[in-house]
Amino acid sequence: MKFFLDTASLDEIQQAMSFGILDGVTTNPTLAAKEKKPFKQLILEICDALKGGIANAEVVSTDTEGMLREAREVVSWHPNIVAKIPMTPDGVRALSILSGEGVRVNITLVFSAPQALIVAKAGAYFVSPFLGRLDDISQDGLVLLREIMEIYRAYDFKTQVLAASLRHPLHVVEAAKMGAHIGTMPFKVFEQLFKHPLTDRGLETFLKDWEKARETLGDISGPAVSRKGAR
Length: 231
Hints:
Elements: E1 2-6, H1 10-17, E2 24-26, H2 29-34, H3 39-50, E3 54-58, H4 64-75, E4 81-86, H5 89-100, E5 105-110, H6 113-121, E6 126-129, H7 131-136, H8 141-155, E7 160-163, H9 169-178, E8 182-185, H10 187-192, H11 197-217
Parallel strand pairs: 1-2, 1-8, 2-3, 3-4, 4-5, 5-6, 6-7, 7-8
Helix pairs in contact: 1-3, 4-5, 6-8, 8-9
């Protein structure tokens, strides 16, 4: 499973990149607006920070012609940019044309299996089902993800499933178990993947025990200390 960060913050991207496990970034107009930078500059800075990873840049037009114009523009900025287009009739029309041109498109705001089936047939590069937003209205987002994975496998669709709106580590784990190609998450969820109370407790115990034994064992980087009775 590839890890994408759902952010436009360069600081968060750089922190995640330091672990060597980040594969890309998803942005949207809300996230981009928070950074208060010209959009093209922001996306190019994200591309540079990702060092070969994928950057998703979303269009803001709602009509087919506007989506086509903006999608062609953003993908011209850098070879690792994927255009994000919403799941609307106009969006699907734009997708069909763009996929025929070889433009990689991520169809976002997908909330049903029929929508996912449509965009796969139209040639989407990524499909983004929003799990957490379904949970917010008392629907199980993981059920949707399971349906999409079953349909795509049945017909061998090439569209990659990008599980989006992941709200907690369990979302990430369940999406991975189902075989989602990508999981995109906020930085705080990414950080939570590292944590477990038993890891913290175990490390604390190990360090306490080591501190007690330092006089005998010495420091790891220091000279060896001879043991009593050594011959």
